[in-house]
Write a structure and sequence with these properties.
By secondary structure, the protein is mainly α. It is built from seven helices and four strands; from the N terminus they run βααββαβαααα. The strands form two sheets. It has a two-stranded antiparallel ribbon. The longest helix is centred in the first third of the chain and has 37 residues, at about 45-80.
């Protein structure tokens, strides 16, 4: 069974409601069009303006789907935030591979989706589990092309920054630089 990671959901909802960007996901605000040139501008200036305006238009249109996915994911997570455990239907293919049969919020989803989920049943992780949590944190940050020992060392060297993130993620932006920022934020909360 799974449950919603409430501390992560709280941070992400605050960012989204404030009109800010969710790192690694979508920007809630559209890009502004460049200023239109004056009436007596040269044909080159007009051509340059149209090219820049087209780039902005294409970028804004392309981000619609990402913004909708974030909105749906946050809506589903908020709906199930008070549940003590949730289950996901799965589909097994002929090769015995497992796929979650839900959209938006699932353990196989985006960084946002994965970061919003945690196991419903908790247990002490011990020293062996701590080692793997440190490796996971380094992987989420992007320190994943080095040995396991180097990942653990990186996490230990940065643990105070990670504790600061867990204490106040809005003022400590270290987590926003991660390759998988929402999962890294969840790992910071777990390590703290």
């Amino acid at each position: 069974p799974w449950k919603i990671n409430q501390p992560v959901l709280d941070v992400v909802l605050q960012l989204w409601e404030a009109g800010g960007d969710i790192p690694g996901s979508a920007s809630r605000t559209l890009l502004a069009l460049p200023p239109r040139p004056s009436q007596g501008c040269s044909p080159e200036e007009l051509k340059l303006y149209k090219a820049k305006a087209r780039e902005v238009f294409v970028a804004n249109e392309g981000s619609k789907g990402r913004r909708l996915a974030v909105t749906h994911t946050l809506s589903v997570a908020s709906r199930y935030a008070k549940e003590s455990c949730i289950w996901f239907p799965v589909h097994l293919d002929f090769r015995s591979r497992m796929y979650y049969a839900v959209s938006y919020l699932s353990p196989q989803g985006s960084d946002l989706s994965k970061g919003l989920l945690t196991f419903a049943r908790t247990a002490p992780i011990g020293e062996h589990g701590l080692k793997w949590l440190r490796i996971h944190a380094a992987n989420c940050f992007g320190v994943d092309k080095v040995s396991m020992e180097e990942r653990i060392k990186w996490t230990i060297e940065n643990q105070f920054r990670m504790f600061k993130v867990a204490k106040d993620p809005h003022s400590e932006s270290f987590w926003k630089d991660a390759d998988s920022p929402i999962q890294f934020l969840a790992a910071c909360f777990e390590l703290a």
